[in-house]
Design a protein that fits this description.
By secondary structure, the chain is of the alpha/beta class. Helices cover 50% and strands 15% of the residues. It has two domains: 2-25 and 193-350, Glucose-6-phosphate isomerase like protein, domain 1 (Rossmann fold), CATH 3.40.50; 48-184 and 365-385, Rossmann fold (3-Layer(aba) Sandwich). It has 17 helices and eleven strands. Helix 5 (77-86) links the parallel strand 3 and strand 4. The structure holds fructose -6-phosphate (F6R). Fructose -6-phosphate binds next to loops. Fructose -6-phosphate is lined by residues 72-75, 116-118, 121, 124, 166-168, 253, 357, 360.
């Protein structure tokens, strides 16, 4: 009866609209379109061969030997997805430090993507300035803020994003320009129609997961129902590690719930033991396994063994999301898309507006009061006036 009542909430479009007061459902539905627009915007990017920052500081753009994606939260996840997507084909390393500082190896041969949707995230701005100081090649992706000011001030190449979206719903803008810019700098990437395939697969998926597809045929609503009242534990393997992280952060920000990730095969070396004695605690988790028809045999065996050894008994529920498509990007984004919608429906079940993230904003406000931005402006001025 209870489950039936919950299911009927998810098929009540008027109720969904009234809870989703800021229209997250509209942004979600536009993911395939955002992919196309992101590629178009990135195509227009012109990368100069030299940027003169001041009399004695200039940056030369050549083929990079290392890549760093500097960003936080919703602006960093594109970097993690890029890293997983290109892991087997990209001839150079990528790191996503999610920190105030760049790794020691960042130098003239390093390309730093400074990614901040708002353009005002202080960790990213600090990395940007450090990258300038170290003469790294920089490409920025932003919708405005101080990052845009910095780029316009000295001519750093920048992909301009549309304003007004929560960063997490602008994912294609924070991911795809990174891949296309790499090509412009001469990095060989064999994407073989992957972008086009991914967009086509997302168009199919959205039909299944959108609000007017009823629970009985909607995998995202089904996942949300299985999570209600429990802590989502998302388990990925291989290149699904970043997808699992994306899902966790979507459950955090949109559904306003704690959530956790684990990854195969590492979890077989630690997490499992924590699941052997305390059913009272593990029973608070509802598990989502990220599955792939092409997953290696050894991973499939591990998933099956882990289910039978601990998960099936220990968790409140174990669910699976299977990827769609042939290429890696399609498989990653199709999985992630079901997760995005599941986090939206879980918010609806909890009666919370998926869009606002007041506690993150409050945190940023508190730090701003501490005058950190003033220090950033001072440093930028010093670097650019020599
Ligand atoms: C996601 C979100 C945060 C931000 C993060 C960094 O919707 O709001 O995770 O992405 O606080 O801010 P930006 O993306 O503006 O650099």
């Amino acid at each position: 009866m209870y489950v039936y009542r919950l299911a009927s909430i998810l098929d009540d479009l008027e109720r969904i609209k009234s809870i989703d007061g800021d229209g997250m459902r509209n942004h979600l539905g536009r993911l395939p379109e955002f992919c196309e627009d992101a590629i178009e915007r990135a195509d227009k990017l012109e990368i100069p061969s030299l940027v003169k920052v001041s009399e004695d500081l200039s940056i030369q753009y050549t083929r990079p030997k290392k890549i760093i994606v500097a960003g936080m939260g919703g602006s960093a996840i594109g970097g993690s997805i890029l890293k997983d997507w290109l892991r087997e084909t990209l001839p150079i390393p990528i790191e996503v430090p999610r920190s105030y500082t760049l790794p020691a190896y960042a130098d003239r041969d390093t390309l730093v993507f400074a990614v901040s949707y708002s353009g005002n995230t202080e960790e990213t701005l600090r990395c940007f300035l450090e990258a300038l100081e170290r003469r790294c090649m920089i490409i920025a992706t932003t919708s405005g803020g101080m990052l845009q000011e910095y780029c316009h001030g000295i001519g750093i190449p920048m992909v301009r994003l549309p304003e007004g979206y929560p960063p997490r719903s602008a994912l294609p803008y924070l991911l795809l320009p990174l891949a296309t810019s790499l090509r412009k700098l001469g990095v060989t990437l064999s994407l073989d129609g992957e972008l086009e395939e991914a967009i086509a697969v997302l168009r199919e998926v959205v039909e299944e997961v959108k609000p007017d597809t009823p629970v009985s045929k909607n995998p995202a609503k089904e996942v949300a129902l299985g999570l209600e009242g429990y802590i989502p534990l998302i388990i990925g393997s291989g290149f699904y590690e970043s997808v699992a992280l994306r899902m966790k952060t979507q459950f955090n920000e949109s559904s306003k719930t704690p959530a956790k990730t684990e990854v195969f095969p590492e979890l077989n070396h630690n997490m499992m033991v924590g699941w052997t004695e305390r059913r009272d605690l593990t029973g608070k988790f509802s598990v989502i396994l990220l599955r792939d028809q092409q997953e290696p045999d050894e991973i499939r065996e591990r998933i099956e063994a882990t289910r039978s050894l601990v998960l099936d008994e220990g968790a409140a529920r174990v669910m699976e999301i299977w990827s769609r498509g042939r290429g890696k990007l399609a498989r990653m984004l199709s999985t992630l898309y079901v997760g995005d919608y599941a986090s939206f429906y879980l918010a609806i079940l909890y009666g919370v507006n998926p869009t606002p993230i007041p506690v993150i904003n409050e945190m940023k406000r508190r730090l701003e009061k501490a005058g950190n931005k003033r220090a950033l402006r001072k440093k930028y001025k010093k670097l650019t006036t020599g």
